[in-house]
Amino acid sequence: MSITGIVRKVFEARQRELEKHQNGGEALQRDVLNRLVVEAKDTEYGQNHAFSAIKGYEDFVKHIPINTYEEMKGFIDRMRHGEADILWPGRVRWYAKSSGTTNDKSKFIPVSREGLKRMHYQGGFDAVAMYLRNNPKSRLFDGRALILGGSHAPNYNLKDSLVGDLSAILIENINPLANLVRVPKKQTALISDFEIKRDKIAREAMNKNVTNISGVPSWMLSVLTRMMEITGKTHLEEVWPNIEMFFHGGVAFTPYRKQYEQLITSPNMHYMETYNASEGFFGLQDDPTDKSMLLLLDYDVFYEFIPMDGGDPVPLWAVEIGKNYAMVISTCCGLWRYEIGDTIQFTSTNPYKFIITGRTKHFINAFGEELIVDNAEKGLAYACEQTGAEVSEYTAAPVFMDANAKCRHQWLIEFAKRPADLQQFAELLDKRLQEINSDYEAKRYKNITLQPLEIIEARQNLFNDWLKLRGKLGGQHKVPRLSNSRDNIEQLLKLNQ
Length: 497
Description:
497 residues; globular
């Protein structure tokens, strides 16, 4: 029996537990809410909001307001300075650095010991459990796992307190036994300079028997490309003959799928999307034939959803299929009714499955078109399919009015494979956006409100250069896809000259 065959038994009990997600979602979530409130009732936040009087969801809503990072920042900063029992019992020592808000360059998300165990590591465990369930012949544990992470630094110079990418915090605190089956070595994984780290990871990993990889698709592709350059190979399975799995998350996989399929041609290769953020681990693709993800309901995360078309937040058991929602979470890291900034749409309620549709701040609605990231991904996928093109990175923003009083959307696209006819690509993208978004179609009607979209071709590595200038190369940093503001695209256009 292979090592995987032996290890597989460790996951069997959890595989059975996950079956409760099929029809017990409301009960699971009510249990989570009760557990979180009871545990945090003696914290400062719990006392200020009368947690001890909360007996159910209705009380929870009455006592606690919806919060953004701005509302919680003061509490979190006190926690970062060492104060205990503020948002969560005890002292929280780790803080995941995430992209900033309107007022701040960065957000610092508390990561408690309970959060590591009951959300983040549990999510990784469940991803493997689901994969092994779906692939009885897997040899996942007969080789190494390449886990790509960011970096961390001391938090206010407090002893044993760290701030940095969530992935770095996870690597720092991982069970030492896991280091026996993962690459690269810890000190390499935590290097802050991504360009140096990429080269070192490639050199450390290329002679190992790697069976699975985990990370953000854009940064992982950069590492794998570097390894191909060093080894002189064309396909990844020439370096790692037993590669079989990529656990990916952080950004949509659609723009990168074709590049991965060209790099990895093995018929034994599999992909699983995971929804893991600085704030928690929320979902995973439990069925490889279905792109939607299973919402994980028995972690220490209580979910609420704000309809994007207006209305009050609703609990899980009141959501509707096909409706766009902003996600709100309460967690064992001390985030209470916290707007995470992501939007999702449910595809099923038995079990609860969903797709990520974008960010609450990453959309274009300058003229009432309500274009979201999910629309953009589908439109680009169609244009690529029709033209044979491949997109590496992109961003888009409105042009409010040009010299001829015309308004349009402007797309800056970096191609891995350029279309033969850029204008045809633009027309196909525009056509598909109209087909899948009636608001966009209405604004494009006879070019009255919106003119045809414009595509500007970005030079190679433009987006990486932009991220590097902003100190955001590598880790979990992402390119903002859509924006109502022209701030990002103007910075990029200056670099593109």
